[in-house]
Amino acid sequence: MTVLEADLSGFLGHEATGSATLELLVPAARCAACMAKIERGLVALPDVRQARLNLTTHKLSVVFEGRTGDPALIVHTLDNLGYRATLFDPAEARAAQDLEGRRLALALGVAGFGVGNVMMFSVPVWAGLFGQELEPATRTLMYWLSAIVATPCALYAGMTFFRSAWSSLKRGRANMDVPISIGVLLTLAVSFSETLQGGRHAYFDAAVSLLFLLLIGRWLDHKLRAKAQGAARDLLALQAPIAHRLDAQGLEHGVPVADVAVGDRLAVAPGQLVPVDGYVQAGASLLDNALITGETAPASVGPGSRIYAGALNLDGRLVMRAAARSENSAVAAIARLMEAGSQSKSAYVRMADRAASIYVPVVHSLALGTFIGGWLLGLGAREALLRAAAVLIITCPCALGLAVPAVQIAASGRLFRKRVLVKSGAALERLAEVDHVVFDKTGVLTEGRPELIHAPDGAVASAAPLARASRHPLAQALAREAGPGRVADDVKESPGVGVAGWIDGRHARLGRAAFLDVPAEVSTETELWFAFDGETPARLIFADSLRPDAHQAVAALNARRISVEVLSGDVAEAVEHAALAAGIKHWRAGLTPIQKAEAIDELKAAGRKTLMVGDGLNDAAALARAHASMAPSAAVDASQNAADLVFEGDDLMAVVDAIDVARAARRRALENFGFSALYNLLAAPAAIFGLINPFIAAIAMSGSSLVVTLNALRMNWEARR
Amino acid sequence: MNILLFLAPVSVALALVGLAAFFWTVRSGQYDDPTGDAARILNDQLDDHPD
């Protein structure tokens, strides 16, 4: 591994005590035995004080004895133990800490404590409601005890809602948290005033149990996002964003790509990605630009050539000078388009908030109407206010707050098992609305690597010994086709041009037309030529092969009344070939990244809800602007960041599965909304006519939450059948 | 009835001890690796102290 030869101290972090720390991702460590092997193996090293592997996230943290340590030694030791490890950028590792999750867990704990202990005082009160002996003085004592426990708990646990409601109100909008906050605070206020007057209707228990149930929903929603973001970060880390910086003596130092400065000299070995935009200083090679432009044919570069981040170096070592920092490397126009796209996505109003925008005015005017109406009809101000509060409490959106998160956590769990990562609940909601799918060609519809499609008889077997000696992707495709075998002797490779060597005592050449002195014809096909000296050269033709289930996936989408289109940056012939083979009638070729994004905007203007599936940097803007987007896990960082969902594996059917699950989730969520509406239709009149007491409120609230949660879990039961 | 005035605070205080313990477990990261911790406690060769 070339990584080991370089100095990697840029990946070290520091503890408060000053000791150096290192974070690594070890994906293959999946059992207790691995954990013992790795931790003991590392602690046995003289420099290492502590090594701790997290089996849930597969992250390994190492603490060194001193202020410095040798990351390469750790990687090497893990390699010897049989585990491939990837270094984590220290900044990324800090960002991965789940502080918000801890805050929610603490709030949930406090609310749970409150509910449990308030019940101790509520049960005697409820018994009193059913004719058991309970003196008013004892009831008031019980209420005071409830107040002492419930009020601090409700204020602490409710902070999440109060903050969100306040910031929403400041922007002049009402989200779900506004009625929750008003409901909780008003309930506490009314309960205090009732208790002071020795009345019967105090709802301290309702205020805390409401928060407890809603926090479960919040916590589930957060877990979903945290899990997906963590997994997406790991996928990105696996792409090893290490740049190899050359110092004045020409020695390589591995540094995080983010640390590369303009003017740095960087080495790019064959098989590595170009880390940042820049110019070639020395060396010649072929670059695969498929991730950036979508073109499948490699481009040859030499000193002075402009090269872009994300290009794959195919066959020669390059020394380059960085012309942009990493964050400026993705072409500025693409970055701007992406930003605009993600803004339009954050303007998307989620289902729960849309429900809240109907629910809030209705419930609040109902409560106000109850108060005014009750007063006018001679109920007295106190009784009228109590009934208005009862309306707010009993209709307070327990079920509504759980209805969507519970469904989405179940849905994304189901997709996670199919190796599809959902980045947020909103992504699932948008995906369910999709009626048009746009595929990129290279790397999405196709596998993104060339396959031999045509060769004269016998040419494959004769050329294979030379092909096995080369790292060029076309030669490797040829070698795959021929299978294992012997390698030619005395092979000389001219980077980007061809290989020459001896097979059975005869000199032979494999390479571009010019390498074999064949007059170059204008050809749109990807080709190699092969000949023994003095014989007529044979032409070998390659094409990027379709994913095996591309046709099946397109047919499945059409069966769901979803139209399909291909937008590609590649040449027309290649796009037409791939589109027809997959059974897609509409395709456009030769598009620049900006044109792709514009095509998505046109579809949006025509009222279509588009799902974009793409992997290249040239797709990133389109991914960010589409209604919903998916990227394969082999995609460049920018595209994975822009996409709503990331799928692993070679199956394009993952797209169809994701749409199916998203639609099922929407059906479940709508059922839950329907149930909540029905519940409120029954509960609100009961509250208006004064039929609610604290016992009925407690039963109704937890009952309705239980029903929506169980309905959400049906997502998983269906999947198991 | 006076016994209530004694027992109710005692039971709330006991529950508070439990809540404090929960705060400690969350803050010391004991829910960060459920899979690993389940294995650590069974194996003498592993470090089974919280971070």
Main features:
A: alpha+beta, Calcium-transporting ATPase, cytoplasmic transduction domain A, Rossmann fold, 18% strand, disordered N terminus, B: 51 residues, mainly alpha, 2 helices, 65% helix
Q: What would you say about this model in short?
A:
The complex is a heterodimer of chains A (721) and B (51). In chain A, β26 (628-632), α23 and β27 (645-647) form a beta-alpha-beta unit.
Q: How would you explain this protein's 3D organization?
A:
The complex is a heterodimer of chains A (721) and B (51). The longest helix of chain A is centred in the last third of the chain and has 36 residues, at 653-688. Chain A has 721 residues and is α+β, with helices and mostly antiparallel strands. Helix content of chain A is 52%, strand content 18%. Among the domains of chain A are: 1-97, Alpha-Beta Plaits (2-Layer Sandwich); 239-329, Calcium-transporting ATPase, cytoplasmic transduction domain A, CATH 2.70.150; 408-447 and 547-660, HAD superfamily/HAD-like (Rossmann fold, 3-Layer(aba) Sandwich); 449-544, 3-Layer(aba) Sandwich (Calcium-transporting ATPase, cytoplasmic domain N), CATH 3.40.1110.10. In chain A, the strands form 5 sheets. A 7-stranded mixed sheet of chain A has the order 15-27-26-25-16-23-24, sandwiched between helices. In chain A, strands 7-6-8-14-9-12 form a 6-stranded antiparallel sheet, with no helix packed on it. A 6-stranded antiparallel sheet of chain A has the order 17-22-21-20-19-18, with helices on both faces. Chain B is mainly alpha-helical. Chain B has helices at residues 2-27, 34-40. The mean pLDDT of chain B is 83. Chain B starts with a helix and ends in an 11-residue tail after the last helix. Chain B is elongated and about 55 Å long. Chain A binds chain B through residues 31-32, 35-36, 39-40, 50, 52-57, 98, 102, 105-106, 109-110, 113, 116-117, 120-121, 138, 141, 145, 149, and chain B through 1, 4, 8, 11-12, 15-16, 18-19, 22-23, 26-27, 31-36, 39-40, 42-43, 45-47, 51.
